[in-house]
Each structure stands twice: as structure tokens, then as C-alpha cells.
Design a protein that fits this description.
Immunoglobulin-like, six-stranded antiparallel beta sheet
Length: 281
């Protein structure tokens, strides 16, 4: 699994925009703990591939009558990937148009941080998500590096890490360190979508993470076909006021959520036809 990640990072540093891998490895039948760790890694890759040469890689083959945790863990990760489809699709458009890969070595986003140069067991998924696959059992520590800035856990917004620093923690099999970079605009859908190709400009949640004073960030809402773009959203902070608005195209009913100081409690729903909302910090 670790060699697969190193190989993928090598490919994306060599001009490949997209990479994939066989969850659990191509040969043999991986043990349950490796399979579950690999499912987490695979779900946060540009392509998720349950495939092997001599065994079916479906999660229920790793469940028992009294323990369905493998299926539940994969369902959690795939649901997150479905919710993140607008972000991943927009990153894929960027890879197509610029050559910047979807899965990126950390140093591509932080070229002046020499601590990132040797990191081969974590990566950036697009410019906003840091993903740190786990290569240990669930009773041992794993560690990963967070570059400069404030990083908010995708799963638990109360967990905010200040970089540059190393994080050491024990990670359950149904968990994965996924951190959102500060000054990020993340586009997500509702839970339980059940598919990746939903209508991205309907019911979208626009998340703003730790926006700095004076900062302005934008995100593209994909149209869902080729490189079409349905809308562009911008978030700005000035004098403690954060404004989120549609600056190109249009969205149907959508919501904006502000994550600041470890809180995600600032939520506002925007009706169809309205083009923006403001938060006061």
C-alpha cells in the first residue's frame, strides 16, 4: 500500500493528471486490516477501484455475521467522496486544462517548505484537502505533517491543527485524517446521495474555512459534462465580514457554511435566485 502511494506520487510528479490503484493490491487476498486502510486511501484517490486478480474485493467478503464494520467503513468513505464530487470534478477540470494533477505531492502546494520534500505517505487532493493514509493497526500511533496555516478536520470541525507541525494520533479503521486548508472554499453535497453524478448546482453546500482578513477565494461549480462550468462562487473577508456570493452563472437553492476558530456553527441557507450571504465574525 505504501509503495502504491509512492508510485502514484511519482507518476503525478511526472506529468500524469490522474492515477489509480487496486484496493488491497492486485495479487492475493489482503488481510482485513490492510483492506480497510486501503479502502480509506482509495476513496480519496481520483479513481476508486475495488479490483484484484484472484479474489473479489467487495467489503462484505471481509464482514462476518456479527461484524459488518468493513462495509460500514467503505460506505462512509464513498458517501464522503460522493459529497465531494463537485470539488473533485473541478480539480479534474483543472488537471485537464493545466496539467496540475488531482493527487499532488505536498511540496507542489508548499514548494518553499523543505519539510514537505520527503513526504511520501500523504498527499494533497487538489489544493484544499490534505489526506494522510494510515499504515498501522488501530492500536498504534500514526503521524503526518501539516504545513503552515490552520487545518480543519473534514470529519470534525472542532479539531483544528496549527502548522507547521507534526500530528501523532491513533486512527480507527473507519477513520482517515482528511484536513481542509485555511482560506479554502469547499463545495459539498448532502449525505446519502448514492452516486457521484448528481446535479452539482442544486442543493450545494458552500463551505468557507478559516478565511483570513482581506482574503478572497473562488471555486468553480462544474456543469457535470466535460469541462462545462455551471457557476463560480467567491468568498471574501473584509473588516470581519465574510461575504459568499455567486459571481458567474447561477445556483439553485444552496447554503453557505463558515468554519472559523474551530466552529462550523455559522450556517445560512440561500434561496433560489439569491446570489449571496454574509457572516459577521
Amino acid at each position: 500500500m505504501s509503495e502504491t502511494l509512492r508510485g502514484n506520487l511519482s507518476l503525478t510528479l511526472s506529468g500524469f493528471g490522474f492515477v489509480s490503484h487496486d484496493i488491497g493490491g492486485f495479487e492475493g487476498h489482503p488481510p482485513r486490516e490492510i483492506y480497510m486502510r486501503w479502502c480509506a486511501y482509495g476513496a480519496f484517490s481520483s479513481h476508486t477501484r475495488l479490483h484484484g486478480s484472484g479474489s473479489y474485493r467487495v467489503p462484505w467478503n471481509y464482514d462476518t455475521e456479527n461484524d459488518t464494520s468493513a462495509s460500514k467503513a467503505l460506505a462512509k468513505f464513498i458517501d464522503a467522496k460522493h459529497r465531494l464530487s463537485p470539488y473533485i470534478y473541478a480539480t479534474a477540470i483543472e488537471a485537464h486544462e493545466t496539467g496540475i494533477p488531482v493527487q499532488r505531492h505536498t511540496m507542489l502546494e508548499f514548494p518553499t517548505d523543505r519539510n514537505t520534500y520527503h513526504l511520501d505517505q500523504q498527499f494533497m487532493l487538489g489544493q484544499s484537502l490534505l489526506v494522510a493514509p494510515v499504515f498501522t493497526t488501530d492500536d498504534r500511533d500514526t503521524d503526518y505533517y501539516v504545513p503552515s496555516g490552520k487545518w480543519t478536520s473534514f470529519w470534525d470541525p472542532a479539531k483544528v491543527f496549527q502548522g507547521p507541525s507534526w500530528v501523532k494520533e491513533v486512527v480507527a479503521y473507519d477513520d482517515l485524517p482528511v484536513l481542509v486548508r485555511d482560506n479554502s472554499l469547499l463545495l459539498v453535497g448532502k449525505s446519502g446521495l448514492g452516486k457521484p453524478d448528481w446535479d452539482y448546482n442544486d442543493g450545494l453546500e458552500v463551505r468557507v474555512y478559516e478565511l483570513s482578513e482581506g482574503a478572497s477565494v473562488e471555486a468553480v461549480v462544474p456543469g457535470g459534462k466535460n469541462t462545462q462550468k455551471a457557476a463560480k462562487v467567491r468568498a471574501e473577508r473584509m473588516d470581519g465580514k465574510v461575504t459568499v456570493k455567486v459571481v458567474e452563472g447561477s445556483l439553485k437553492e444552496w447554503s453557505a457554511k463558515l468554519f472559523a476558530q474551530g466552529s462550523g456553527s455559522h450556517l445560512s441557507t440561500v434561496a433560489a435566485g439569491d446570489d449571496g450571504v454574509s457572516f459577521i465574525l
